[in-house]
């Protein structure tokens, strides 16, 4: 397993990270014991970066990780935690709260659920429109000073917000969606990160399973799976996007790998400052994702892939309209 530094001053992390959201929430029914086994398998394979959010399953995902990590040396893994999203008892999304007092309260509960005394990278899940980023980051800076947090991260924010936050406290990494069919960061956000020495932890590298090679138009639906509300998974958009997957399948077959491995390898090839987060919920999917580390794409390979699936190839937005409106990052992508 290769390792990279998150930004100029961030932690050393594995070249591939594990996104744990789906083990508890938003993708429908999940097997908790399999989730814990998948975390163990990831650690045993050399993955050290584990990403979660305090609102995934209203704390359940942190509890799962706390259980899975019991007995593991604390310096053998890094915890990346998002906070700020507010949810009701029915799972409804109620907005964001990144006031300084809320930041510190959220961290206190995360530390308890994760059974740890510090978080490696702590980040607001979204920009709170009612709180200046300077106030939010200032609170995190106090938590860093106190030893409860090691590094500042950001999530789904644009270049201007990145610069403002970085001026208060150095940002280790920006967590944002980035894949073959979600390339909006390339125009302004990624250049700003590289100028400032900020890494990118890329989620959605398989576009939530859409370009994994395993999704079909007859894929079963679960009322708890938010993908049924995603424009990319609906109607004619889905038909169009699965045609792109068929193109990728031909390219993957020619290179002796799976569609998922090709898509992950493409993100890996974008630079050592980009760390893909794979949202594997099972050991089978994890093992497939790990295989991407063995796929070497040449310059000609990358050019062929990008001709076949250009930046604007996908049909449909990556989130529903209401959620897109909450993304500070989309101001730079439009």
TrEMBL record:
GO terms for molecular function: oxidoreductase activity. Pfam families: Aldo_ket_red. GO terms for cellular component: cytoplasm. Residues 16-308 form the NADP-dependent oxidoreductase domain. InterPro entries: Aldo-Keto_reductase (IPR050791), NAD(P)_OxRdtase_dom_sf (IPR036812), NADP_OxRdtase_dom (IPR023210). Keywords: Oxidoreductase. This is Aldo/keto reductase. It comes from Rhodanobacter glycinis.
């Amino acid at each position: 397993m290769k390792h990279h530094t998150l930004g100029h001053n961030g932690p050393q992390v594995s070249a591939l990270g594990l996104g744990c959201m789906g083990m508890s929430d938003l993708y429908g029914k999940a097997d908790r014991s399999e989730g814990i086994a998948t975390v163990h398998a990831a650690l045993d394979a050399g993955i050290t970066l584990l990403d979660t959010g305090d609102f995934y399953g209203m704390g359940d995902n942190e509890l799962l990780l706390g259980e899975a990590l019991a007995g593991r040396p604390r310096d053998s893994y890094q915890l990346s935690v998002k906070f700020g999203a507010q949810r009701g008892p029915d799972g409804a999304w109620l907005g964001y709260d990144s006031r300084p007092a809320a930041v510190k309260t959220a961290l206190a509960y995360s530390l308890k659920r994760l059974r740890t005394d510090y978080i490696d990278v702590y980040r607001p899940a979204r920009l709170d429109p009612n709180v200046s980023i300077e106030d939010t980051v200032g609170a995190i800076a106090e938590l860093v000073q106190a030893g409860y947090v090691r590094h500042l991260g950001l999530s789904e924010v644009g270049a201007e917000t990145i610069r403002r936050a970085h001026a208060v406290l150095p940002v280790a990494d920006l967590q944002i969606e980035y894949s073959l069919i979600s390339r909006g960061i390339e125009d302004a956000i990624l250049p700003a990160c590289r100028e400032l020495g900020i890494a990118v932890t890329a989620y959605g590298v398989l576009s939530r399973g859409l370009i994994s090679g395993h999704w079909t138009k007859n894929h079963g639906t679960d009322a708890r799976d938010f993908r049924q509300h995603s424009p990319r998974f609906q109607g004619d958009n889905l038909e169009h996007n699965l045609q792109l997957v068929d193109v990728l399948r031909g390219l993957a077959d020619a290179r002796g790998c799976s569609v998922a491995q090709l898509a992950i390898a493409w993100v890996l090839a974008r630079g050592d400052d980009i760390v893909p987060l794979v949202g594997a919920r099972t050991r089978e999917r994890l093992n497939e994702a790990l295989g991407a580390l063995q796929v070497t794409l040449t310059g000609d390979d990358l050019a062929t892939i990008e001709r076949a699936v250009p930046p604007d190839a996908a049909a449909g937005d990556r989130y529903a309209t209401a959620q897109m409106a909450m993304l500070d990052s989309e101001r730079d992508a439009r």
